[in-house]
Amino acid sequence: MGLNGSRRAAGTQAAARPNSSRAAGAGGSSNTMLKLYTDDSPGLRVDPFIVLVLSLSFIGSIFFLHISAKVIRAFTK
């Protein structure tokens, strides 16, 4: 019974410790991740809807510039 008890302790100890540096860094530090996305973090607060509208309007302006450049080129030839 002494061997089984020591084997279990060694097994749980080895399972808790990662075998490689990649396994150790895979989870990351949840403490720093939470600091990035809390209400206390300083920075610019923008509503996701505003970001969507601004990005779609930027894409639309690029389409407009391309189409207007083709129209202007067609009339200047």
Automatic annotation (TrEMBL):
<keyword id="KW-1133">Transmembrane helix</keyword>
<feature type="compositionally biased region" description="Low complexity">
    <location>
        <begin position="14"/>
        <end position="24"/>
    </location>
</feature>
<dbReference type="GO" id="GO:0006886">
    <property type="term" value="P:intracellular protein transport"/>
</dbReference>
<comment type="similarity">
    <text>Belongs to the SEC61-beta family.</text>
</comment>
<dbReference type="InterPro" id="IPR030671">
    <property type="entry name" value="Sec61-beta/Sbh"/>
</dbReference>
<keyword id="KW-0811">Translocation</keyword>
<keyword id="KW-0812">Transmembrane</keyword>
<keyword id="KW-0256">Endoplasmic reticulum</keyword>
<dbReference type="InterPro" id="IPR016482">
    <property type="entry name" value="SecG/Sec61-beta/Sbh"/>
</dbReference>
<dbReference type="Pfam" id="PF03911">
    <property type="entry name" value="Sec61_beta"/>
</dbReference>
<feature type="region of interest" description="Disordered">
    <location>
        <begin position="1"/>
        <end position="31"/>
    </location>
</feature>
<feature type="transmembrane region" description="Helical">
    <location>
        <begin position="49"/>
        <end position="67"/>
    </location>
</feature>
<keyword id="KW-0653">Protein transport</keyword>
<keyword id="KW-0472">Membrane</keyword>
<protein>
    <submittedName>
        <fullName>Sec61beta family-domain-containing protein</fullName>
    </submittedName>
</protein>
<keyword id="KW-0813">Transport</keyword>
<dbReference type="GO" id="GO:0005784">
    <property type="term" value="C:Sec61 translocon complex"/>
</dbReference>
